[in-house]
Amino acid sequence: MTAATSVRVLRWLCAVIFVCGIAGIIVSSINGNNAGWVVSIGLTTSSAAVILIVVSTVTARQRIHVFDEVEAEQLEAQIAEQVQRGASEDALRDIVRRAIDLGRKTA
């Protein structure tokens, strides 16, 4: 089972726990108002929510915006260095644009 499939299965499992948990809380509170059952089902449902949040956070593929800014500054410094060495700035920026376009197509 791949990681993407595992995450998908886990998300579906959490959704099923949410739906069953809401129904369980309603039924247990109507059927005798047993606080133990309501609390147990509520804790199970909230645990599924915490697991879903953790899995979504861990498997996120986008980086924090700050890291993109640092890389952009490094790239600008490299372009400035190449321009100082005599390279054409317009040609360099065109190469960077085409590399970005190619990266977006393959990602």
Structural notes for this entry:
By secondary structure, the protein is mostly helical. It is built from four helices and no strands. Helix 1 (3-30) runs antiparallel to helix 2 (35-58). The chain starts with a helix and ends with a helix.
Q: How many helix segments?
A: 4
**Backbone CA Rg:** 26 Å
Structural class: mainly alpha
Query: Could you give a short account of the major beta sheet?
Result: none
> What's the order of the H and E elements?
HHHH
User: In angstroms, what separates the terminal alpha carbons?
Assistant: 22 Å
Extract low-pLDDT stretches: none
Shape by Cα distribution: rod-shaped
Average pLDDT, rounded to a whole number, is 84
Work out the strand percent.
under 5%
Provide the helix percentage.
Answer: over 70%
Counted beta strands: 0
Provide a compact summary of the structure:
With 107 residues, this protein is an all-alpha fold.
Detail the topology: elements first, then pairings.
Blueprint: H1 3-30, H2 35-58, H3 65-84, H4 89-106
Overview features:
107 residues, mainly alpha, 4 helices
